Automatic annotation (TrEMBL):
<dbReference type="GO" id="GO:0016020">
    <property type="term" value="C:membrane"/>
</dbReference>
<feature type="transmembrane region" description="Helical">
    <location>
        <begin position="346"/>
        <end position="370"/>
    </location>
</feature>
<dbReference type="InterPro" id="IPR000175">
    <property type="entry name" value="Na/ntran_symport"/>
</dbReference>
<keyword id="KW-0472">Membrane</keyword>
<feature type="transmembrane region" description="Helical">
    <location>
        <begin position="38"/>
        <end position="58"/>
    </location>
</feature>
<keyword id="KW-0769">Symport</keyword>
<keyword id="KW-1133">Transmembrane helix</keyword>
<feature type="transmembrane region" description="Helical">
    <location>
        <begin position="390"/>
        <end position="409"/>
    </location>
</feature>
<comment type="similarity">
    <text>Belongs to the sodium:neurotransmitter symporter (SNF) (TC 2.A.22) family.</text>
</comment>
<feature type="transmembrane region" description="Helical">
    <location>
        <begin position="218"/>
        <end position="243"/>
    </location>
</feature>
<feature type="transmembrane region" description="Helical">
    <location>
        <begin position="142"/>
        <end position="163"/>
    </location>
</feature>
<feature type="transmembrane region" description="Helical">
    <location>
        <begin position="306"/>
        <end position="334"/>
    </location>
</feature>
<keyword id="KW-0812">Transmembrane</keyword>
<dbReference type="InterPro" id="IPR037272">
    <property type="entry name" value="SNS_sf"/>
</dbReference>
<dbReference type="InterPro" id="IPR047218">
    <property type="entry name" value="YocR/YhdH-like"/>
</dbReference>
<protein>
    <recommendedName>
        <fullName>Transporter</fullName>
    </recommendedName>
</protein>
<feature type="transmembrane region" description="Helical">
    <location>
        <begin position="430"/>
        <end position="451"/>
    </location>
</feature>
Amino acid sequence: MKREKFGSRLGFILISAGCAIGLGNVWRFPYITGKYGGAAFVLIYLLFLVLLGLPIMVMEFAVGRGSQASIALSFDRLEPLGTKWHWYKWFGIGGNYLLMMFYTTIGGWLLLYTGKMAIGEFKGLDADGVTGVFTSLLGQPVTMTICMILVVVLCFGIVCMGLQKGVEQITKKMMILLFVLMIILAVRSVTLPGAEKGLEFYLLPDFKKAAEAGLKEVIFAAMGQAFFTLSLGIGAIAIFGSYIGKERTLTGEAVCVTVLDTLVALIAGFIIFPACFAFNVQPDSGPSLIFITLPNIFNAMSAGRIWGTIFFLCMFFAACSTIIAVFENLIAFVMDLTDCSRTKAVVGNLIAIIVLSLPCIFGFNIWSGFMLLGAGSSIQDLEDFIVSNNLLPIGSLIYLLFCTSRYGWGWDKFQKEANAGSGIKFPGWARFYVSYILPLIVLFIFVQGYWSKFVG
């Protein structure tokens, strides 16, 4: 079966960026930026984004383009005879399924909240009332299941239309609209009375604040955010490398994707920090920021119903961009492995994702007693922990070793593939760093994640 290709370079960059751009850009980045010193943390984060995330992204792209296959066959085609690198494909694709087992549920929440905000359901509610809306939702498995199914059917419907006509064309429009809407929201937020305090915190580095938070903690948080924000290690990025030609170098393309991903995170800060400071609200972590804190802020804003609707529409687009990209990887995996049609791969995966997403939903209500990670944890926390703290760092380490070791694909073949075409070249002098130092950093992130979770 002839491999599909992107219709344009812009489509490749926006879709790859859409895979990386997710809810973590919006609710995790502002939270840890606020926790670890504001602008000082942002500078450290940007440094590690270049040192950690960028090289691994180039390697994932190179494995995809060099093999012209998804993770289902990429290692099989590139590995030396007799080696077992291809065993990782089962863990990598498992990470894609695990990610969708809870990401689709959150996508359903965002779809529902877009509607709730649009019809004015939050108008007149106090802080306890807004909290009660989210708490009530978690106790409604039927409602959450319906919303999840709508998101799954919508995104698989787009994927079923094909790479160019479906994934590329719709994701391009979605990403462009996402950027436009976020800029509009950012402009509104920074013009709020009292927003200047939030801008000062966000834009003026104060390394004393970073020192107060603990330099070690700040550095690890910046490393972790830079590492996880690009969705590296599970082949979700590699698949798009298999869809592009060799007209451009992969380092240049990875830089474009990284810049777009970072831009969304930075714009999110311009939305959230000025608004929070304007209304004397501290940014909270995770779902409480999106589904509790911000609806309260929109209630206090003039025309807050409109701004709130635009915000949740942005968040829905951000979630869908990731879901569509990962769905494309799932069906490419099945198509590469079985040589079946796109339609059959979509139908099979659609049913599988709906069924596999149910434990996350039930974990908030009828299975709420299942708390493997400790009191107060949920099935969603467990799924997120397996992906974020295990499969992403381990997978990234696999890609690093595969592309640099003589027992894998090897440095020379990787560099030849990465540097094919015009654009920024992957420098030869970086070989020692990516072969020996970067794997140790990734290993450190993996170990530190466990230490922080269960010891520290």
